[in-house]
Amino acid sequence: MLGHAFECVKYEVSGKTRFLARTLDAHTDNGFIFIVVQDGEIESRLDNCPNAIISSNSSEYLHGTLTVDESTGLVSFDPLPYRADPYPGSDVHFSDVYVHVSENKVWAIKEDSSGNQCTVYKNDVTKQRFVFQEISGNQTLSQRIQSKIQKGYIKINPAVFSVVDRTLN
Question: How far, CA to CA in Å, does 82 sit from each of 43, 65, 68, 85, 130?
Answer without folding.
Answer: 27, 13, 21, 10, 12
